[in-house]
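[#protein-structures] MJ: dropping Lipoprotein-releasing system ATP-binding protein here for a structure pass
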Amino acid sequence: MSEVLGLDGIEKTYNAGKPNEIKVLRGAGLTVAAGEVVALVAPSGSGKSTLLHIAGLLDTPTAGTVRLLGEDMGSLGDGRRTEARRAQVGFVYQFHHLLPEFTALENIVLPQLANAVERGAAEARAMDLLASVGLDNRASHRPAELSGGEQQRVAFCRALANGPALLLADEPTGNLDPGTSDTVFQALMALVRETGLAALIATHNLDLAARMDRTVRLDNGLLV
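AK: finished. structure tokens for Lipoprotein-releasing system ATP-binding protein:
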């Protein structure tokens, strides 16, 4: 399987050189291949969100290399990094962050329009994604009219709207009850399997982690 995400020697230090210096990551390394779903398990405050932000090009490491589809992201300027993030990375968070004034369909269409996709094609793609998670009959509903599980499934569809190579998810079922969490997780796994993308999913739920391809643990700033 071909590498989609590569992290080598990732370090992240806040307030470097000051008395209150905090070393969050101390040389973390990881590769995630196309079609692979990797669980990231870590206690709160261990730096998993920092790691995800670095992997997703929302933050830069103090040291180390981030590769996306084989390209060293540290060698790119801010503009190119933004383009790479927009085109190749999808994000899902514990809280869905859907735009409340727009319908489920529109929430999935908007990121495509920002990526210069023609509206008709964007709407067709959005409907296909909604159908794949059983929500095509809810396309015209706004987030407030959807259940928590439905909102999170729409958020998955939005993350995949532009056909990214990498999906990063930070506790995507952490705000849901166990039954809904299982339904949402199954929908997520089906989307990942159908598209063949690489996925790194942070979770506290060890049962969900066990259903992914492998698990890595963030321990004292290192991935083990």
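MJ: nice. The radius of gyration is 17 Å.
AK: one more thing. Residues 135 and 150 are 8 Å apart (CA to CA).
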